[in-house]
């Protein structure tokens, strides 16, 4: 759903959602939170994406997914990522990744308008 969750890299740090609930006694909601979720997905979850053109054979897509899954689950990759980047990249492969992508590209017009107005106001 795009909710802002606790990071596996810093589990002791509460997520925005958890902190908001603690401070205000209720879950965040409304257009600002919906815009935050879309922005969070696009700036976090979709930073490392692989896209293929329409019409790509399913066998090629399956092979690409299998290869990526093999890499991100490989103990040597995980150890190297921790050593080099100090974290292991979070991946959303297949249906989960497609759902995140769709949540951003199919964001309701009122969310896009809100984000555009927010950016324009910040630039003043």
Overview of this protein structure:
With 124 residues, this protein is mostly helical. It has helices at 16-24, 31-45, 58-72, 75-85, 95-105, 109-122. Helix 2 packs across helix 5 and helix 2 (31-45) crosses helix 6 (109-122). The longest helix is centred in the N-terminal third of the chain and has 15 residues, at 31-45.
Structural classification: mainly alpha
Fraction of residues in H or I helices = 55-70%
**Silhouette:** globular
Q: State mean pLDDT (0 to 100 scale).
A: 89
Short description:
By secondary structure, the protein is mostly helical. It is 60% helix and 0% strand.
SSE topology sketch:
Blueprint: H1 16-24, H2 31-45, H3 58-72, H4 75-85, H5 95-105, H6 109-122
Keywords:
6 helices; 124 residues; mainly alpha
